[in-house]
Amino acid sequence: MRFTSEQRLDDDVVEREFTLGDIPGILWTPASASASAPVPLILLGHPPLGLGTMYPRLVGRARQAVADGFAAATVELPGSGDRPRLAAVDRARADMRRAVQAGEPVGDETVDALVLPLVEQAVPEWQAALDALLALPGIGGPVGYSGGVISLGIRLAVVEPRIAAAVLFAGSFVPRSMVEEARRVTVPLFVLLQWDDEGNDRQAALDLFDAFGSEEKTLLAGMGGHTGVPQSAGEAAERFLARHLS
Amino acid sequence: MRFTSEQRLDDDVVEREFTLGDIPGILWTPASASASAPVPLILLGHPPLGLGTMYPRLVGRARQAVADGFAAATVELPGSGDRPRLAAVDRARADMRRAVQAGEPVGDETVDALVLPLVEQAVPEWQAALDALLALPGIGGPVGYSGGVISLGIRLAVVEPRIAAAVLFAGSFVPRSMVEEARRVTVPLFVLLQWDDEGNDRQAALDLFDAFGSEEKTLLAGMGGHTGVPQSAGEAAERFLARHLS
pLDDT digit string (tens) for B12-32? Predict the structure, then answer.
């Protein structure tokens, strides 16, 4: 892990860009972190639109995480931003958009091709990032995962024992195999659902919530579309992480 | 409205029992209420088990409401506690219990007979209580309704313009006609659902949530049975009321 930039965002937040091999990432820490006890880490998930595009929303979430006493970090997804494209995923995305624009259902094969290769490649990368991040002074466990591609959150929660709690956003396509995988998730979960998300199958999201194996799981459904998560819902998710990681 | 007892529960809460005609009720106010600006009022709903039986849970919710800056009040439901029994409702309750014990579905007619007469009689009583409570020094609007028989909350939210926000517990039988009535509810709503509530039809609860006409409505579903609402869910409901009544 090599830091490529460092800036102080405000009195309390230090933002550092890094590369891990050829994967870019960003780490946000409290300015006072190295001096005090290690803080828990929240991995900020995001949709595959590139860190540059997602930066304004990510930095808002990161600032909140730091204010809550955490470090926050994220890495670029495979095929996004300046990373090499994933041709198969790009084709699946084009198929998906054609189906949505034609008002047709998005087929299972398209969903699988859109999501599964991304998850397969991203999971070991996020685990490598965890190795590097947790080796830094001032950052300790436990680790939370929050938001972004829900299938990545599901897979990480299943395979990565350092993830102690997860906030998942039921707002993206979920391969059927991931619903089965969800039964193996056991960490405390907080699932956000936008009740009227135009691009999301509400019943599929409810079935997925039902499938999670976690003894403690909470579903918070609010009104509004995909990007209209109410502030109060975001705050509830923050309190959930604070309760489980502090 | 005639006060029949008054006690100071702790430094901040005054509990007063009252009767309104022949209907008993309880009012909890901040000890300092009359000296300062009027506080908003939360009507505490409860199941038809009698105020005596429900007192321990009610006083806990009332203490929290007062700590949040509200007054809280409740009145005995028709047919409960020391009030005259409602023979038809008692028969419907016996039918309901027979069906549940036999593992059979509870019929629509039984649900109607169990709930509708209770709501019909209770609504004007709760409105009369509101008249009397809001005339007291130290208590002002807006008014919130929280918990208890969900159909009473729905009807009050529809007919009583002083109700500005409601927390509803999707944990009791709901007549089909009340689902239609739910479409006429427009105040901000926070609906609690126990995902594994053994006595509750989850799909019916989700359909009811979908039916509410409110632009702002939130569903919080947690794990556990009917009486196992997690503390964090109760706190989320309190924050909802604080946001809308303060």
Answer: 899 999 999 999 999 999 987
By CB neighbour count within 10 A (0-12 exposed, 13-18 middle, 19+ buried), where does B35 fall?
Answer: exposed
**How many angstroms away from the CA of A204 is the closest CA of chain B?**
14
Q: Between chain A and chain B, how many beta carbons pairs sit less than 8 Å apart? A: 54
Start-to-end C-alpha separation, chain A: 26
Which DSSP string do the residues of B149-172 spell out, in sequence order? -HHHHHHHHHH-TTEEEEEEE--S
Which CATH superfamily does the domain covering A2-245 fall into?
Alpha/Beta hydrolase fold, catalytic domain (3.40.50.1820)
Q: How far is B126 from chain A (nearest CA, A)?
A: 29
- Hey, is the C-beta of A213 within 8 angstroms of any chain B C-beta? no
Shortest CA distance from A207: residue in chain B = B203
Work out the mean pLDDT of chain B and round it to a whole number. Answer: 92
pLDDT at B34 over 90: no
Whole-model pTM: value is: 0.88
Chain A residues within an 8 Å CB radius of B194: none
Please report residues of A whose CB lies closer than 8 A to that of B210: 195
> What pLDDT score was predicted for residue B36?
66
Distance (Å, whole) CA B77 – CA B119: 9
ipTM rounded to 2 decimals: 0.82
What CATH number is given for B2-81+123-245 in this structure? Answer: 3.40.50.1820
Tell me, what's the pLDDT at B33?
56
> Where exactly are the structural domains of chain A?
2-245
